[in-house]
């Protein structure tokens, strides 16, 4: 028996060793190589150097050749990301990943992204279509030259992607539209709450503050709504009330400071867009040298050129403008036809089949009117993204702009998703402008509630031409800030949106800039990065002051002197957040606000907390002292259930661990191989460093025109998406902890290895 056990143990060890060796071999076989195969459409030689962080510099004599090599290098490092994006846009993720992806596929097939993209390609300006084809040629050259060595994910799944096409690039753009412009669910929630008293609705759906940090000022000032006054209110919530306060994550910061306020005497621009963080992260850093022009920044795999970055004349950054480009239309459908005035129109019925890995295919029925697909039983969605005429990709024209005027003209050709664009020129100018399309709606309406689809007067009247969008150059303040806040005030004649986010982050960034430059002090790269990494919430500090009289003694001591920091090691932000959420939940329940997932803006929660006892009674919120004590009690009980009874062991970082997932990390046993480390993180929603589990700073970019070659560009993990690559996680320390010493600047990254030469 002992001998049999020894033999069995030896056999198991050998099998384990064989499996380990096989796994190592499989990983190494699929790592990026240094090949430079022929790209069939390449016209002239292209030289590529790669620095010690894996960031390539593409030197070419023409834009098209540079884009061909960009496509090849993108596929070399991020082919699985390209494939996931394409499948996500087409509604074919479940075919690869199984039932867990069905909801996403149903959504994208309802929107019909693949049909929109295919119809948009022939409508593109010729130059943009040529750019997309050049990028596709490079991606396909990688596919043709690498056979069974396309990446570990493809090897494990037994899949091989089809050739890339220009329509696939437009799918990437449509996914960004979805991520950045989806507001229709908010409008459904507003519609579900039509029964609310008007003053309650105004309060609940407002994010206006007394200090909105607008760039285009208000003509008629917008003032924060007061607490409602209810003649007969009850503290008892309804069965339809919000069951849970949902913490929405939104973000992106960008600010630019003139040379008058900097140590170098030249402008500094900073941008840190906040988006979902997966493994690999969204952006792919890259540099170009094209016919004497230098460009560097981040590319979006699947799109041509640099999206955010700088060339030798201008640096630029984006934040989401939150223009409302989605409207809902309530359709009355009789005998398969939608009512239109005195007549009717046919309703298109599409039958979609969704292949599912490991299961039977699913059948999906999609109904569509002239307004768009029906996203609920009776509501059709009209959306700029679903009109093929609205898809434009002037990214190359933007990155090659030689002057601010050229830059402006290129951005006039960008129809969306609408962005705030901040820029700084080498010549010393700074500026801001809005981009995208603004629908022209029926006079007196703003699209915040569903329209009657039968009334043709409710249809859009076209769009405001992008050339008419507002812009500012060299403001008297010496700086500009955008952070998804309401930047376009009522002084602009066309309603832009009812969906702006809180101005909390914009106010904090503005205040940090003014504090740093007070008394003639100057900003530098290190000070700018400190602003990007700031984790202080002034509203949370004030909220806890309001809760102070109702806290138990140990918590009163804990919060004494707290500045509102969302620091990882302590429990303070964790507790403050729980109290805020519980107070918001109770408020919505008392007012019988329908729709789970509704949330109050940070300003409104603070208004409730700071209101006096008389205002609470008038608003139907009951006796303030008793209610606030109950809120504290319920919030602490909930935290104890989740974190344990020992409060000394609670921490914000434990609740706020990074959760950047790879699709194959969801497979049991593969999380350690594919996912990012789940480390405690500082930051939160509502502070400049937005960090909320799998959402946060998708990159950080700083350029000081006093030393432009030392531009800082950091992404969450690294250039490569390949397990085993030295460049898969090498930027993570700089992203997580910052880079005050400047180790991650371009000057600290000399070229590494031999150059690659792509020849026709």
Q: Can you describe what's shown?
A:
There is one protein chain. The protein folds into 4 domains: 46-180, Penicillin Amidohydrolase, domain 1; 184-245 and 252-326 and 392-532, Glutamine Phosphoribosylpyrophosphate, subunit 1, domain 1 (4-Layer Sandwich), CATH 3.60.20.10; 327-386, Aminohydrolase, N-terminal nucleophile (Ntn) domain, beta-sheet knob region (Penicillin G acylase, beta-roll domain, Roll), CATH 2.30.120; 538-655, Penicillin amidase (Acylase) alpha subunit, N-terminal domain (Orthogonal Bundle), CATH 1.10.1400. The chain is 34% helix and 18% strand. A hairpin with a 7-residue loop joins strand 27 (700-704) and strand 28 (712-714). Helix 13 (504-516) runs antiparallel to helix 14 (525-532), helix 15 (538-547) packs across helix 17 and helix 17 packs across helix 18. The longest helix is centred in the first third of the chain and has 28 residues, at 2-29. It starts with a helix and ends with a strand.
């Amino acid at each position: 028996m002992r001998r049999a056990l020894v033999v069995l143990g030896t056999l198991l060890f050998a099998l384990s060793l064989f499996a380990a060796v096989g796994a190592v071999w499989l990983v190494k076989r699929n790592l990026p190589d240094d090949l430079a195969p022929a790209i069939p459409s390449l016209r002239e030689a292209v030289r590529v150097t790669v620095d010690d962080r894996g960031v390539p510099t593409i030197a070419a004599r023409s834009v098209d050749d540079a884009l061909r090599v960009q496509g090849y290098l993108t596929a070399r490092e991020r082919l699985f990301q390209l494939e996931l994006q394409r499948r996500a846009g087409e509604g074919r993720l479940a075919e690869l990943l199984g039932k867990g992806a069905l909801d996403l596929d149903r959504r994208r097939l309802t929107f019909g992204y693949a049909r929109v993209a295919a119809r948009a390609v022939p409508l593109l300006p010729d130059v943009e279509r040529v750019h997309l084809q050049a990028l596709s040629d490079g991606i396909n050259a990688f596919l043709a030259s690498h056979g069974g060595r396309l990446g570990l994910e493809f090897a494990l799944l037994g899949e091989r992607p089809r050739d890339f096409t220009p329509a696939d690039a437009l799918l990437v753009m449509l996914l960004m539209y979805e991520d950045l412009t989806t507001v229709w669910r908010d409008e459904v929630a507003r519609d579900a709450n039509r029964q609310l008293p008007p003053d309650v609705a105004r309060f609940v759906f407002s994010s206006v503050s007394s200090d909105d940090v607008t760039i285009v000022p208000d003509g008629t000032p917008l003032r924060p709504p007061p607490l409602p006054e209810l003649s007969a209110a009850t503290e008892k919530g309804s069965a339809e009330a919000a069951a849970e306060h949902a913490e929405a994550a939104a973000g992106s910061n960008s600010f630019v400071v003139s040379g008058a306020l900097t140590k170098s005497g030249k402008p500094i621009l900073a941008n840190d867009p906040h988006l979902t963080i997966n493994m690999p992260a969204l952006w792919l850093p890259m540099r170009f040298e094209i016919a004497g022009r230098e460009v560097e920044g981040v590319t979006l795999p699947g799109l041509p050129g640099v999206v955010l970055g700088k060339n030798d004349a201008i640096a630029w950054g984006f934040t989401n403008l939150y223009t409302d480009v989605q409207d809902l239309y309530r359709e009355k459908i009789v005998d398969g036809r939608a009512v239109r005035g005195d007549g009717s129109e046919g309703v298109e019925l599409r039958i979609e089949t969704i292949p599912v890995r490991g299961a039977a295919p699913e059948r999906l029925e999609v109904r569509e009117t002239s307004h768009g697909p029906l996203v609920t039983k009776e509501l059709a969605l009209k959306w700029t993204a679903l009109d093929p005429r609205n898809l434009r990709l002037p990214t190359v024209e933007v990155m090659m702009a030689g002057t601010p005027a050229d830059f402006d003209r290129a951005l006039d050709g960008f129809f969306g998703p609408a962005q705030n664009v901040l820029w700084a020129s080498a010549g010393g100018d700074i500026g801001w402008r809005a981009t995208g399309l603004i629908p022209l709606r029926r006079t007196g309406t703003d699209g915040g509630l569903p329209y009657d689809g039968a009334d043709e007067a409710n249809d859009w009247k076209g769009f405001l031409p992008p050339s008419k969008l507002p812009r500012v150059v060299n403001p008297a303040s010496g700086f500009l800030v955008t952070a998804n806040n309401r930047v376009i005030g009522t002084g602009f004649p066309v309603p832009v949106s009812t969906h702006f986010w809180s101005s909390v982050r914009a106010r904090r960034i503005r205040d940090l800039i003014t504090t740093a430059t007070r008394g003639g002090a100057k900003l530098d790269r290190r000070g700018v990065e400190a602003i990007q990494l700031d984790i202080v919430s002034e509203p949370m500090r004030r909220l806890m002051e309001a809760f102070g009289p109702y806290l138990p003694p140990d918590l009163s001591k804990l919060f004494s002197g707290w500045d509102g920091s969302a620091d990882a090691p302590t429990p303070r932000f964790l507790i403050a957040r729980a109290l805020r959420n519980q107070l918001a939940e109770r408020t919505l329940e008392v007012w019988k606000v329908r729709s789970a997932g509704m949330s109050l803006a940070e300003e409104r929660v603070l208004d409730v907390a700071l209101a006096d006892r008389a205002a609470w009674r008038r608003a139907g919120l009951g006796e303030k002292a008793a209610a606030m004590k109950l809120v504290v009690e319920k919030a602490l009980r909930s935290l104890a259930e989740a974190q344990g009874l020992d409060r000394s062991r609670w921490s914000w970082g434990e609740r706020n661990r990074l959760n950047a997932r790879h699709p194959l990390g969801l497979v049991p046993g593969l999380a350690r191989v594919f996912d990012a480390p789940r480390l405690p993180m500082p930051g939160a929603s509502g502070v400049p460093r937005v960090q909320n589990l799998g959402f946060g700073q998708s990159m950080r970019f700083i350029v000081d025109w006093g030393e432009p070659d030392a531009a800082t560009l950091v992404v969450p993990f690294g250039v490569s998406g390949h397990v085993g690559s030295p460049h898969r996680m090498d930027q993570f320390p700089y992203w997580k902890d910052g880079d005050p010493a400047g180790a991650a600047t371009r000057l600290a990254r000399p070229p590494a290895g031999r150059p690659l030469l792509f020849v026709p």
